[in-house]
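All the exercises in this workshop are built on plain-text protein records. Instead of coordinates, the fold is spelled out as a row of discrete tokens. Once this layout is familiar, the rest of the handout is easier to follow. The record below serves as our worked example for the rest of this section.
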Amino acid sequence: MENQRTLLYLSLFFVLFLIWQAWQQDYGPKPVAQVPVAQDSSSDVAHEAVTVDDIPESIAVTGNQTVPNIPVATGSQRVHIITDVYEIEIDTRGGDIRRLDLRQYAKSSELKDESFELLTEKESKFHIVQSGLLSSGSPAPNHHSIYSVKQYEFRLAEGQDELKVDLFWQEEGVSIIKTYTFHRNDYVIDVEHKVMTTSAPWNGSQYRQLVRAEADSQGESSFIYTYTGGVVYNDELKYEKVDFSDIADEDLKIDQTGGWFAMIQHYFLAAWIPDQEESNFVYSKHPKSNRYIIGARSPAVNVVENSQAVFHSQLVVGPKLQDRLETIAPGLELTVDYGILTILAKPLFWLLKIFHGWFDNWGWAIIFLTITIKLVFFKLSETSYRSMAKMRKVAPRLQTLKERYGDDRQRMSQAMMKMYKEEKINPLGGCFPILVQIPVFIALYWVLLETVEMRHAPFALWLTNLSEKDPYFILPIIMGATMYIQQKLNPAPIDPIQQKVFQFMPIIFTVFFLFFPSGLVLYWVVNNTLSIAQQYVITKRIENS
């Protein structure tokens, strides 16, 4: 029964693949832990010591050179900003974004009235955005310098499409205005440093960086592995992951024009996008404060006396909405990580969104996408099921051959091949159509897993969140039942060991799928149900012929 053996191996491979993903998240190799920064015992917010080991060098360096002794200011206040999509705290020390909540995304399915906190100072999830200026001979504010502001509360008013927040710094005839520009219904923030000098020429560059700890999954399913870490994109490397262990092992040093860099996690990202004509030195750092930094430094700019220059970048902080990411920067949509099956996953997502537009419900979109895929592969599935039906029909004769030849494998094999030839059966005929469909099924798995639009999306009845497990485990049990029915329609293996393994497969898959997001389980239930209907009709026709 080569057909059954192949199906068994494929099923086991898929289970092992998913188990490996979950294992990687919980038990995979981790960077060596560093001593954490001092922390107030009454709060989960990190209180960092003032250091300069997180400031990039003002020029490209090689080897283990140290950062120069840069004066660092202490003491700061917070600027509170509210837009239609953000609630933000900016620290006047450095003008860093130290906290950012996404107002249109709930913290969890249980805490729908609380916004999702993407940037935070909390030690377990530390993730902030920094930027500053560097100069080897002129005054320049880094992210430890203190800015002043005219007010500490900003709000995007009704009818207002844009909100500007200015921070001011001045020293020795050099004035800097750091401006954040927020836009209505937009997760792109424009960031500018305007340099004005009156007493002497100024020479320096801009740097931008993302800083985070190796955080937990922030309330997402711990059973599903998705990548969390750094990413760099440029025309040469294309999409390159820089995970925490890479940053800990070796500093990244890349010269590139355009492109971008980011810290990504399940559903969300924070990305710095320089002007695409600008050349940048992209770097990573792993300071002793147990922080993982990825950043970029621009070329130096000369500003003559009584003149000014502007450094500009875009900052994207928010959900990984593919349609929007494609319009912001080349390759940014790749942060929705479908892996090597992107070429298949993108059309599937496009079709899924069409169905969602029709029904305004992601559950029905999954169902009709599954039906569409089954229609596309209808003839291939028909070929597979016909082969299985024929094998099922001759199963009693195969059992007779086994009893006749016992352990004489050579004669048994010869007799089987003779019978297959007489009955015009290809023992592998049911495998190839299934092999062709496997990449599509895996691509769809990643589409359902990576689609932020499906986060906390309800379907019907008790299924109020397709991105989390079924609270009553009804769908996984139904899925296990459909697998059992399919088994009964397939030819029974001759090998007793294979028979026992196949008997346990529905139970194994049911237990495993108990913890899967219900949107994924819904796909398997619909797919199995359609397969049962098609296979049942074909099997009856073959048996009655």
Q: What stands out?
A: Residues 1-9, 22-50, 60-72 have pLDDT under 50 and may be disordered. Residues 31-47+77-217+226-337 form a domain with the Beta-galactosidase; Chain A, domain 5 fold (CATH 2.70.98.90).
